[in-house]
Amino acid sequence: IAGITQAPTSQILAAGRRMTLRCTQDMRHNAMYWYRQDLGLGLRLIHYSNTAGTTGKGEVPDGYSVSRANTDDFPLTLASAVPSQTSVYFCASSPEANYGYTFGSGTRLTVV
Amino acid sequence: AQSVSQHNHHVILSEAASLELGCNYSYGGTVNLFWYVQYPGQHLQLLLKYFSGDPLVKGIKGFEAEFIKSKFSFNLRKPSVQWSDTAEYFCAVNARQAGTALIFGKGTTLSVSS
Prior knowledge:
heterodimer; A: about 110 residues; mainly beta; four-stranded antiparallel beta sheet; B: about 110 residues; six-stranded mixed beta sheet; 12 strands; about 0% helix
């Protein structure tokens, strides 16, 4: 079934540890995105990539990095996790930047 | 910069009641508009979208939305809600020419009692 796969589904992480959230899509979409969802704040864009090989910063990029080595994969890395990064992280993709998104099932991350 | 405002944080309705969720955006140029729904414990799913043409758009599950350009609004409506519509609803917008990422509102939680 075509779609987006995120891993892990959930994770408890010690503060200061490095963590990579994985996101893979099989729809050959050009654009990919990472959002975090927090209660009362909705979804906020962390980083995006309009096409393989390019990335850009969103609204809340600090403490996160991404790479886009190929069309299918868009990993999100927390270099040194802090408790404020406790959130639900959603990866999304779209054929082009102006289209609607397909979302992954999310990763629930707790930093303690 | 674009922004999206959803007026209602939490709406509580009885089954068969009519629903209207407000959404306003701020951006001076041409926009694409979306409504997404998130059922409890699930990821976001597209309800409907507006790119151009007829400002009244129909989506899945009986939802519709009307784009009123003069009011910068894109309100979501449903004539008769069901218990299964209990979910969180997000309005989103992006600037068409700029090809920017979607900006989401903070969401409206809809609780429908049977």
